Amino acid sequence: MTDIEIAIRTRLQPLAPLRLELIDDSHLHAGHTGHRGGGHYRLLVVSNIFTDLSRLARQRKVHQLLEDLFRTNTIHALSIRAYTNSEYLTR
Would you say 47 and 17 are in contact if contact means Cβ atoms under 8 Å apart? Predict the structure, then answer.
């Protein structure tokens, strides 16, 4: 696991994730137009903190926790799938 992946996982701990999967897709985007560094990631996070939150509110919560990594261009792009435990088990 890279330092960036550890940083992402650490920052997401306030969500008390029941499941957290992080996939680094940066290698798929190297050299594309407009790419100025920063990683491309796919995130699956399952947390009951998301109960009663809209999809947009869940995304905002994740972005808030990772805000400094976006600001410093450590993360360039992040695809987020955020579920409660019951949603994850019945999908």
Answer: yes
